[in-house]
Amino acid sequence: MKNLSAWERITIARSQNRLKALDLIPHLFDHFVELHGDRLYGDDRALVGGLASFEGQAVTVLAQSKGRNLDENLSCNFGMLHPEGYRKAMRLAKQAEKFKRPIITIIDTAGAYPGKEAEERGQAEAIAQCLKLFSQIKVPVIALVLSEGGSGGALALSVANKIYMFENAVYSILSPEGFASILWKDETRAKEAAELMECTAFDLQAKGFIDRIIEEAELGLESDPLFSIVQIKDAIRQDLNVLHKMKLNVMLEHRYQKFRKLGSHL
Amino acid sequence: MNQPFHKRKERLNLFQTLFGKKKNIKVTSSEMNIEMCPKCSTAIESQTLKQQNFVCLQCNHHFPMRAYDRIDAHFDAGSFIEIYAKANSNHLDSFPDYLNKLTKYQKQSDLNEAVVVGTALIANQKVAVAIMDSRFMMGSMGQIVGEKITRIIELADRRHYPLIIFTASGGARMQEGILSLVQMAKTSAALERFHQNNGLYISILTHPTTGGVSASFAMLGDIIIAEPKALIGFAGRRVIEKTLQEQLPDDFQSAEFLKAKGFVDKIVHRNALRTFLIQVLKLHNLEVKA
User: What is the ipTM of this complex?
Assistant: First the structure.
């Protein structure tokens, strides 16, 4: 694994040619069938969800999706979800629970969309309900942080039994730009802020938030995606195997405790 | 020897403030404490303001309220039993200047952290309560705030008490990074267990309730109440205006706006809140002697 600064990792994570969820899904799963809409308002393209097979086992996939080019980005709002994206995720999670399919989420968002309509349709409520629902959904949940995990908008889909994170992905309470702007009233000091924020996979593993780090190929993730895909598949196989063997209440307690114990000393 | 001049200056200050020539809202003189309503400029004597539950009776502006004043205003006198009062975040000072900030807020307020939790009686009904105080670092939620709220939810769950949370927060506390952010998940998960055990949770959103607190326990009440004109939302107004390059209407993200959009059950005037809570508790088949 390479020794890079947090800012260098952020630059890699945000680069346009970085692998996107839509590139990753066909590598990880077979027969992906996309399902659309939240049944309430619309279909948020920033959240791609559906059914698929993972090595012969049915799973539900919920992926935050950034575009691979400008057209795709305009359609998926640069990966920033509206409330209907979170509500689509909840609808499909309940469906997964009904048919006893494990849920695999892919996290890749700068944050929930800060827009007028998003507020009008209850961005806060949608995220809160997601956090609440996923904490007790009765099937195993595994989250994979692909490149950017920004704030509550990413956390909403991270309430999982296991969280994996790519070596060069970052996950933080707000963007380094926002951080610098609040702390020093100067957005241009983002690079400096990044080093203070403890937002890399290694920082977050040390804090107990991340369970596994997925290594990226020496010349970059895109140069050899299979190098990483193999690790993810091995991890999902092993972890699902363990989670499936647990009694339901034990599996739910496992997920509850993962979050319950974070920052729990008074 | 200075005293006559000092008194004269005090009186001059008071005069200038009352006639809008000085900006500071609070006037202290040896004779009386006067506060000005920031909305309608009515001068209100501090003692009177407290008796009015920090509401201006001219224009109904709800002043920000200290956690302990809320306890006095809404719960049976002397019934509040605080727990985890001493818990503070001072040992988490890994972030530059964080400890300085914490100690500054601790000195300024009568608080160790941004939330006060405990049990209280309301018309003799035992309830679990958490009251956030925006004076302490914008009411931001770090590990201690998240843990205290989680523990009071768990206590309500174990003892089958109704749960009442007053929110006032700018969101998750950035100095504590990811461990602040995950408090959103931790508190929401505890509420889901409480919910599955049929616990009653009333959340009362006060000014301001934004960011990570609005996107977790604030929005998860069985009944969601807001104080009039309170600012409630996920993203900050300036962030949205910058993203959209447009000005937002004045009432955007107000309590009234959220009610119109269907995200708040009721807006309750602070002076009617106690009666309202007693009524709701009664209707949940709990023995309440009003």
Answer: 0.97
